Amino acid sequence: MKTWFITGTSSGFGRIMVEKLLEKGDRVAATLRKPEMLEDLKQQYANQLWVEALDVTDTVRLRKVVDKAFADLSRIDVVVSNAGYAVFGAAEELTDDQIRREIDTNLIGSIQLTRAVLPYLRHQGGGRILQLSSMGGQISLPALSLYHATKWGIEGFFESIIAETAPFGIEITLVEPAGANTNFGHGSMDVSPPMNVYNETPAGMIRTARTNGGYQPTLDPKKAVQAMIDSVGLSPAPRRLLLGGQGYDLVHQALQERLTALEAQKDIAFAADYDTKTKESV
After folding, report:
1. Which of the residues 45, 85, 120, 147 is marked catalytic?
2. Rounded average pLDDT over 108-124
3. Are the C-beta atoms of residues 86 and 190 closer than 8 Å to each other?
4. Nearest Cα to Cα of residue 231 among 78, 109, 82, 126
5. Which residues contact 59 (CB under 8 A, 6 or more apart)?
6. Domains held by the chain: number
7. Which of 10, 133, 134, 231 is catalytic?
8. d(Cα 239, Cα 173) in Å, to the nearest integer?
């Protein structure tokens, strides 16, 4: 039996994960902004489910909740940083409040959660962190620039701390799902006020497709969550876990194009180095 700490458990991947883990007998510390949304599970599973209110943008509260979880549960084996959402709209359309809130939630919230749990994981001799990123941490689409900024940012953060924390037995996986039929694309997506000038641009066309139901995700959220749970049994932990055929195809294409562009600039890159004789004479 493992004990899990999960953020963003009101719906989507977070809610599904809580249900699956409780069904298999694990303990879950679930956090969400409205704890009453898990009341049905609390009544069914009682002390197997620990619930606390948390908005990850409140760093002071976040630290208190983490402290309380470890105090109450003694040991937490897996931390799942799942809370997040997307702001949809061209960069020029976004409001200042939308920008701040998204960065505070997806990027700073994830960073601060990690910082809060690391001392406990070190003290207990190790643990596992699953950080929900996205295929959008490897690719980018018009009208989602801010979402991509947070996901590319969190990928860079974890690329660094994976090496920092490995000596303490802490293993980390960046989970990169494709789009899925969860609440993420509906209630968990904030839409900016549209500007007509973007109607015929790629951002506007994606807006129209989204409004008309033109995008149909193929990722099964229950299968995706099961893959996340199963990954905890793998050691060494996979650095990235890409989920969904659409995500695989898009990321594969993006990485190939990026590598081709890099190789085409090899001579330019090396030409910018110091000339050997010049360097020796300095």
Report:
1. 147
2. 98
3. yes
4. 78
5. 108, 112
6. 1
7. 133
8. 5
Helix (H, G, I), strand (E, B) or coil at 127: strand
The boundaries of the domain holding residue 12 are 3-281
Distance between CA 16 and CA 9 in Å, rounded?
Answer: 8
* pLDDT tens figures, 54-66: 999 999 999 999 9
What is the DSSP track for 229-270? HHHTT-SSPPSEEEESHHHHHHHHHHHHHHHHHHHHTHHHHH
Q: Which of 2, 85, 120, 151 is catalytic?
A: 151
Q: CATH code at 154?
A: 3.40.50.720
> How many other β-carbons are positioned within 10 Å of the β-carbon of residue 94?
18
CB 116 within 8 A of CB 109: no
Residues, the chain, total?
Answer: 282
Taking a C-beta distance cutoff of 8 angstroms, is the pair 110, 133 a contact?
A: no
CA dihedral over 122, 241, 135, 77, signed as positive or negative: negative
- Whether 151 is catalytic: yes
**What's the whole-number mean pLDDT along residues 100-104?**
97
Phi, psi of 93 (to 5 degrees): -80, -20
- DSSP β-ladder status, 3-6 and 27-32: parallel
